[in-house]
Design brief:
This protein has about 450 residues and is α/β, with parallel strands linked by helices. It folds into 4 domains: about 130 residues, 3-Layer(aba) Sandwich (Rossmann fold), CATH 3.40.50; about 110 residues, Transcription Regulator spoIIAA (2-Layer Sandwich), CATH 3.30.750; about 120 residues, Transcription Regulator spoIIAA (2-Layer Sandwich), CATH 3.30.750; about 55 residues, Nucleic acid-binding proteins (OB fold (Dihydrolipoamide Acetyltransferase, E2P), Beta Barrel). It contains 14 helices and 21 strands. It is globular, with a radius of gyration of 23 Å. It starts with a strand and ends in an 8-residue tail after the last strand. The model has no long low-confidence stretch (mean pLDDT about 95). It binds 5'-deoxyadenosine and iron/sulfur cluster (SF4). Iron/sulfur cluster binds next to helix 7.
Length: about 450
């Protein structure tokens, strides 16, 4: 690679990967790399991959097939192109990736972003087929934090990783293997990064973690839980909104529930996956709670914050799932009521306990159940949005819309809201009144705060 260099990073999967991609960019910037939006322009292409389901992992190999052509094309014109695989596929499959796709020059896992400069200088020295997937003892975030300080700007709605990894070992899930054991970042590091983000223009911060509500740390006055961290973060001037994701039902403590009532900056939206509504399947999944306990938790959340919007994840066709089990999932969806949700066909992942089970559910049964579940979830989402027509609330303006003069913001309940800018700018928090509701978004007009436009 010659200088100045261009890097294209393609991100798959969850928000933690989005965060890690931003950290890669922070590490590469001081090395003279500019981030570009097209593979064709790049000298270095990094695929930041997801291993959660087979489909996600397979996408990486089809992309690598395309990149092989691009690399050949470049070589024919005497130009170099380095190709790297990062993220959870890198962690899970390691050098097997290079065996299957020799076009890959180096591989690094989610804990090894700080190794990028070394990998690149070794690449420049002619080394190939490098694999960096150790879990280092030190905090990967600390090694990256200072680099983030040099970032020119941050989004108005920024992510901040506070926790990584998972010790829950749900029987279907690769995360405990790819992201490792639960780790909570120390409070002072999080507070410092949050202040930095706000200084650079963030108005909203979403705390990230595979099990974010299990976060804990030693802060002023003793052990802090997530509720305490949120309350400290809320004292940062200029920060308008807080969110956190993803939570496990068993780690929702009373103080965190109360935070939805007491912390004015904490938005009324919670992603709280239940996966299934059947107690037998929940047990087989090793979720360690029942459908009844989940519904009780939802009731307590609604008592604390009656307008809280609930989001969820569901898996259909877990091994052994009967039609009755699936009917229980439809039932819990009706009873809990979701503003938004993700649902998936069970995908057997190598190395997870459920993958070994003999009672796998046939593909066509999974497809049919998924269609029924998604139909119900889509109707719930539509009804949730429709109920907002005529209502007013504040939105945070986040990005330009597709039409001239249009901006897109977010409601407290995470709905996308389209408005005409009327002199307002990205980063403003403005009052709006909803005119129309669509399946996935709302249209609204910004209310005039000086005259009585209500
Ligand atoms: N198959 C299907 N869905 C899965 N998820 C995790 N593992 C699997 C799997 N093996 C889903 C869960 C989780 C979300 C991030 O992905 O619903 O909450
Ligand atoms: Fe995976 Fe379960 Fe951990 Fe979530 S709680 S990351 S589904 S093992």
């Amino acid at each position: 690679m010659s200088t100045p260099r261009k890097v294209f990073i393609k991100t798959y999967g969850c928000q933690m990967n989005v965060y890690d991609t931003a950290r890669m960019s922070d590490v590469l910037r001081p090395m003279g790399f500019e981030q570009v939006e097209a593979a064709a322009e790049a000298d270095l292409i990094i695929l930041n991959t997801c291993h959660i389901r087979e489909k996600a992992a397979e996408k990486v190999y089809s992309e690598l097939g395309r990149l092989r052509m691009l690399k050949q094309d470049r070589a024919a014109r005497g130009r170099d192109l380095a190709i790297a695989v990062a993220g959870c596929v890198a962690q899970a499959e390691g050098e097997a990736i290079i065996a299957r796709a020799p076009v890959v020059d180096f591989i690094f896992g989610p804990q090894s972003t700080h190794a990028l400069p070394d990998l690149i200088s070794r690449y420049d020295a002619g080394e190939r087929a490098m694999v960096e997937t150790d879990f280092p003892a030190r905090d990967k975030f600390d090694a990256l934090g200072e680099k983030a300080a040099a970032a020119p700007a941050v989004p108005v709605s920024a992510f901040l990783a506070v926790q990584e990894g998972c010790d829950k070992f749900c029987a279907f899930c690769v995360v405990p293997y790819t992201r490792g054991a639960e780790y909570s970042r120390p409070p002072e590091r999080i507070m410092a990064e949050a202040r930095l983000l706000v200084d650079k223009g963030a108005r909203e911060i979403t705390l990230l973690g595979q099990n974010v509500n299990a976060w804990h740390g030693q802060g002023a006055g003793g052990t802090w839980n997530l509720a305490r961290l949120l309350s400290e973060l809320a004292s940062i001037d200029g920060l308008g909104r807080l969110r956190f994701t993803t939570s496990h039902p068993n780690d929702m403590d009373d103080e965190l529930i109360a935070a939805f009532a007491e912390n004015e900056k904490l938005m009324p939206y919670l992603h709280l996956p239940v996966q299934s509504g059947s107690d037998a399947i929940l047990k087989a999944m090793n979720r360690k709670h029942t459908a009844g306990q989940y519904l009780d938790l939802v009731a307590r959340l609604r008592r604390a914050r009656p307008d809280i919007a609930l989001s969820g994840d569901f898996i259909v066709g877990f091994p052994g799932e009967t039609e009755e089990d699936f009917a229980a999932t439809l039932r819990i969806v009706r009873e809990a009521g979701y503003a938004q949700a993700y649902s998936f066909k069970y995908s057997a992942r190598p190395g997870t306990p459920a993958a070994e089970r003999p009672d796998q559910v046939p593909q066509e049964v999974k497809s049919e159940r998924l269609a029924r579940l998604q139909d119900l979830l889509a109707r719930q989402q539509q009804a949730f949005n429709a109920a907002f027509v005529g209502r007013s609330f504040d939105i945070l303006l986040e990005k330009p819309g597709r039409h001239r003069g249009q901006l897109v913001g977010r409601s407290p309940w995470l709905q996308a809201v389209h408005v005409q800018a009327r002199g307002h700018a990205i980063g403003d928090i403005v009052p709006v009144r909803v005119e129309r509701a669509g399946k996935n978004s709302l249209s609204a007009h910004i209310m005039d705060t000086t005259t009585a436009d209500v």
